[in-house]
Design brief:
Elements: H1 2-18, H2 22-38, H3 42-58, H4 62-79, H5 84-96, H6 100-112, H7 119-149, H8 152-156, H9 163-171, H10 176-183, H11 192-214, H12 223-290
Helix pairs in contact: 1-2, 2-3, 3-4, 4-5, 5-6, 6-7, 7-12, 9-10, 9-12, 11-12
């Protein structure tokens, strides 16, 4: 009666897994494993553990899956049962979790346990190792592609206003013409937004100058004093814009430092992956030369 109830739970968990309800399946498999353990049905515990690990993989909980496979591996070794399948699944999850070196080490161990396999199975095992090496190669190419598209030199040479250029512009602030004469055209070193803003500012200042020029003044301001008023308003707006650019420049320098660290870590990862692939290549060559001796 109890065994029948446990089997119903296990069957329900399998149906949940097949329908994609991995959380429900995980809960039911865990309940079944606990019941099998109480009954000391180690075969049932093993099957439930395998299903639990598969649920963890589907839920992208690779750390939990690795822990489950390790426990299952210990159980199989203690029972003297075949553990090659468990080793292979563990190695795949390690690779998925980016533990490439340990994953491929377990693959090697898996292949070394082939002594009881037929020659055909050994051949298939070598094919599995080659496929894993190709996956690591592909990842190396992807990381190198990222590094090739964004380099540190390119990042540090991005067209931003440097503090020195901003200060020069601030000193030459009487008119836009003087700014251009002192530090060069804005389009040569400033972001497009700054160039657009400056063009709009020049248009507004001309319009404002026209209004001031035509507006009657009780003190009968001369044309020179009107120009000075326009330049003052224009300079005030430019000062605000340059302050914004300085803040933007500080933010950009901070971002560049963060990207520099990330790219440095990516380069280290590429070097590690290269070493892993080279080692597996040598292993494949050794296996192809030495071969396996069936028991």
């Amino acid at each position: 009666m109890i065994i029948s109830a446990i089997n119903k739970i296990f069957t329900s968990a399998q149906l949940n897994y097949s329908s994609g309800s991995y959380l429900s399946a995980l809960s039911n498999f865990q309940a079944a494993k606990s019941s099998f353990s109480t009954l000391k049905d180690f075969n049932g515990v093993r099957k439930a553990s395998e299903c639990i690990a598969e649920c963890y993989v589907k839920l992208n909980r690779f750390t939990d899956a690795i822990s489950t496979y390790r426990e299952l591996l210990v159980q199989l070794e203690n029972e003297g049962s075949g553990s090659i399948g468990c080793l292979f699944e563990l190695s795949k999850v390690l690779v998925a979790n980016k533990d490439y070196e340990e994953g491929l080490d377990f693959l090697n161990l898996c292949l070394e346990k082939q002594e009881s396999w037929s020659p055909e199975k050994k051949k298939n095992g070598d094919r599995v190792l080659k496929r894993e090496v190709e996956e690591v190669k592909k990842l190396i190419e992807e990381v190198e592609g990222i590094l090739g598209g964004i380099t540190l030199d390119g990042l540090l040479e991005s067209p931003r206003v440097s503090p020195r250029e901003s200060d020069a512009a601030f000193v030459a602030l009487e008119t836009p013409e003087k700014i251009t004469k002192r530090v060069g055209p804005l389009k040569d070193y400033a972001p497009p937004s700054m160039v657009t803003a400056t063009s709009e500012l020049e248009f507004v200042s001309k319009k404002q100058f026209t209004k001031i020029k035509k507006r009657p003044s009780p003190k009968a301001q001369s044309e020179t004093s009107a120009k000075k008023n326009v330049n003052w308003a224009e300079n005030h707006k430019l000062r605000n814009k340059i302050r914004e650019l300085k803040e933007e420049n500080k933010s950009t320098l901070s971002e560049n430092e963060g990207l520099k660290k990330e790219l440095g870590n990516a380069k280290k990862l590429v070097e590690q992956l290269r070493k892993v692939v080279d080692r597996q290549k040598k292993e494949l060559v050794r296996r192809s030369v030495v071969g396996f001796t069936p028991t």
